[in-house]
Amino acid sequence: MSVEGPGRAWVFGDDVDTDQITPSRFIVSTDPEELADHAFNDLRPEFSANVADGEFVVAGENFGSGSSREHAPLSLLGAGVDGVVAQSFARIFFRNAINLGLPVLICPDADRIDDGDEISIDLDAGTVTNHETGKEYDAEPLPPFLQDLVDGGGLKPYTKRKLGTAE
Amino acid sequence: MTGQTITEQILSEKAGRDVTAGDYVEAAVDEMIAHDVTGPLAIDAFEDVTGEDGDLAAPDDVVFTLDHHAPADGVEAANNHNIVREFARAYGTHQYEINDGICHQVMIEEGFVEPGDLVIGADSHSTTYGGLGAFGTGVGSTDLGTAFATGELWFRVPETLRFEVHGDLPEGVYAKDLILTFIGDVGFAGATYMTAEYAGSAIQDLPIHQRLVLANMAIEMGGKAGIVEPDDRVATYLEEQAGLDVSIDPDLASDDDATYEAVHTYEGSDLAPQVSKPSNPENAVDVDEVVGTPVDQVFVGTCTNGRYEDIRTVADVLAGERVAPGTRLIVVPASKAVYEKCLETGVLETLVDAGATFQSAGCGACAGYHQGVLGDDDVCLATANRNFPGREGSMESRVYLGSPATAGATALYGEITDPREVETPRYDDHAVADAGVVR
């Protein structure tokens, strides 16, 4: 359950900000599928047409910097992305991804993954496996509070349980 | 226990227990804001968690603004505005209209924020409230929508990175130059997950509108918050701006033995006007390194530097002059109140006479939506907070960041200009009023 993949890696560099994930001219929509049609539109125009369910976004340092807009992680969920592996994340993107139930892993060796490599991620163990090279890389496990939030499906289910509105 | 930072103090108060950096807490939130881009998603999240006819924890603590696409620039944006309007009406929250201004400026002018408050906003520049000594932080729409329902939210208590500036600042050096210096020194991600705390005599000497600039751009080094310890200047400001009667708690300050991630210390007199080169705020250099760079557009506005004092600084430079041929100057006041003050004092007339395009209040071209976006190869100097690739339009455009004084000087010459090289007859509000310019 906690293992996602294998799936193809779409590799990006450092400081990919939320405007580059979902260009601002498209964020009048709040629909994940519609947003997915424009994901990485300017940075990597072939992404949205070619990304398949179960694939991964892999990035360098400070992924998701910039705006607080949740349209960025939503567009990746809409694209069917199974997780984001980065050397580091900007704070609000990391928080939004956890709240929305999009798996995120901080992995210092993310730069050893090449574009198109088949990878798997193990959220419980905190590891990333590159099936091209057979190498396994350590990732930072989430702190217990965040792990519970992710395990429970994100912030909305958590809040529903708190409010007693869960079905 | 050992001493606490002001961040730990505020979050302890709101969590109801003593907390320290690294702790995870659920804390009571004082105010919540969303705008026309993030509001509809927050409303979706709220309706999802509460079901039909759910209750807001405190409608009076919820504020919506319509500032990013204001006035609406398309049908989808207009529909988003209507979603926000209808929700605010149905639930009795506060809601401000197009031209009322940018969320952070409206929140401050309308007196929603006081020192020591915990403010969350579905906008990354919600750090701005730290200029008043509040803990303000940007969150996502799901965060906000669930907080609408519960009045609280989860936080990791951040470590603090302290920036101390001592002594006096030279002529031509403003808060914008300080914050670009800090970001340049620690890098775009240098304060990730942390509070950026600003202290020292040069900071305490800053008027509040400049402290807001320091807090606003904490996010540009990854910061969760930016904060200046509140003092009597904050009380005076809130009384003048918002009619609030606030007494400052002298204990609302970091303890002498508080723990910091690191302390960066500066001597004010060593600092110079800064410009951040494309395409990252961390590319800050002394202005003289880029002097002479031709620009197509100068953009004055945003939640960073769209206040009256900022726009007046540009008018100071351009009074009786013309914007350089071939250069466009776009001025967007941060709020309706700023607009009206520019009108009353003659600043608006001065700028329009100089050839500026003066727009209604809002975010303007800062986020690249409309009204002043940049084409391929356009070069802009903006008083904004970020200059990411394509931020204000084409991915091929290039944005430099600078202070309002640098923006005014640059508009005058059509190339990046050191503000210290331009004579600026101080604009005298009273003299202008006496001359009968006030309408």
From TrEMBL, chain A:
Keyword Isomerase appears in the UniProt entry: no
Domain Aconitase A/isopropylmalate dehydratase small subunit swivel positions: 55-102
GO biological process, one term: L-leucine biosynthetic process
Pfam assignment, any one: Aconitase_C
CDD domains noted in UniProt: IPMI_Swivel (cd01577)
InterPro entries in alphabetical order: Aconitase/3IPM_dehydase_swvl, AconitaseA/IPMdHydase_ssu_swvl, IPMI_Swivel, LeuD, LeuD_type2/HacB/DmdB
GO molecular function: 3-isopropylmalate dehydratase activity
Keyword line: Amino-acid biosynthesis, Branched-chain amino acid biosynthesis, Leucine biosynthesis, Lyase
Pathway: Amino-acid biosynthesis; L-leucine biosynthesis; L-leucine from 3-methyl-2-oxobutanoate: step 2/4
UniProt key word NADP: no
UniProt catalytic activity: (2R,3S)-3-isopropylmalate = (2S)-2-isopropylmalate
Top EC class, one word: lyase
EC nos: 4.2.1.33
Subunit structure and binding partners: Heterodimer of LeuC and LeuD.
Reported function: Catalyzes the isomerization between 2-isopropylmalate and 3-isopropylmalate, via the formation of 2-isopropylmaleate.
Protein family according to the UniProt entry: Belongs to the LeuD family. LeuD type 2 subfamily.
Protein name stated in the entry: 3-isopropylmalate dehydratase small subunit
Gene name per UniProt: leuD
UniProtKB/TrEMBL annotation, chain B:
Positions contributing to [4Fe-4S] cluster binding: 303, 363, 366
Pathway terms, separated by semicolons: Amino-acid biosynthesis; L-leucine biosynthesis; L-leucine from 3-methyl-2-oxobutanoate: step 2/4
Residue ranges the record marks as coiled coil: none
SUPFAM superfamilies: Aconitase iron-sulfur domain (SSF53732)
Domain of life: Archaea
Aconitase/3-isopropylmalate dehydratase large subunit alpha/beta/alpha domain sequence ranges: 21-414
Cofactor note text: Binds 1 [4Fe-4S] cluster per subunit.
Molecular function via GO: 3-isopropylmalate dehydratase activity; 4 iron, 4 sulfur cluster binding; metal ion binding
Keyword list, A-Z: 4Fe-4S, Amino-acid biosynthesis, Branched-chain amino acid biosynthesis, Iron, Iron-sulfur, Leucine biosynthesis, Lyase, Metal-binding
Function of the molecule: Catalyzes the isomerization between 2-isopropylmalate and 3-isopropylmalate, via the formation of 2-isopropylmaleate.
Protein name: 3-isopropylmalate dehydratase large subunit
Gene it is expressed from: leuC
